[in-house]
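Much of what follows relies on a compact textual record of a protein's fold. Think of the row as the fold of the chain written in a discrete alphabet. An example makes this concrete, so a full record is given next.


***
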Amino acid sequence: MGFFGKKGSSGFSSSSTAEEVTEGIDGNGLTAIVTGSSSGIGTETARVLALRGVHVVMAVRNVDSGNKVREEILKEIPSAKVEVMELDLSSMSSVREFASKYNSSGFPLNILINNAGIMASPYMLSKDNIELQFATNYLSHFLLTNLLLDNMKNTARESNREGRIVNLSSSAHRHPFPGGIRFDSINDEAGYGSIKAYGQSKLATLLHANELARRFKEEGLNITANSLHPGGIHTNLFRYHTILSGFASTVGRFMFKTVPQGAATTCYVALHPQVNGVSGKYFEDCNISKSSAYGQDADLAKKLWEFSLPLTSP
């Protein structure tokens, strides 16, 4: 896909890599959590943040895989500061345990990257009996963010540095169920479609960032929240769709981004000074873009927030 890239107002494009968009940026003194960082663009995000001096906490379901990635990063960047902590987003109990351990660790938190996700899975329920894509891609990140917010607020205040929350959405947010979110049948197997359920979860992720941004502005906090579409990347997200995976491996390799290109927008939104003070925006190819009508619906974002609170209560 890279050779189709046309630079936007940021000076970057779809062909820009994570290293390129963060070149010259000093991340020393910053601490970031990256969920789902044991594979794909999550791994590249963790590596590039570490390369720029950020203290990275890899929040991963498979700790062994996470430790292997950590070892590879340290081999390349001996001075890197990288931790691995267990986080299973299909379990709210695991989310609470992770947040409790993190908040007790004494680590500050400048940047939270809600990266982890699954794509177009068959109908399944999470360990909390929530439709799995909605639970993993959105609801557990909603809970995680809320549990870490006091840490982020304190860090932003004490360091006098802007905190940033980065939610990985997708262009698939444009193709959810009718109405955007199935509030009355979120867990129903009837009417379930794996692609539309993925779109719903990614719309929710986008609306989450928008509502956070609104609340932060209302409270006068020095924290921003944005969402993004990383681009089409052939990663293990395709594991539930052999046809899509086959396409991505053959013809798709000329259309899809590489992993370093796929991590670029995340790293740009997380670190770049051009994004200082920017909040409640949707990014593609390291530039501000326009989301769908549902993605710009402030009332829908508020409704989703109120819907999510009881689902994540202990």
Q: What stands out?
A: Strands lie at 31-35, 55-60, 82-86, 111-114, 163-168, 223-229, 282-284, 287-289.
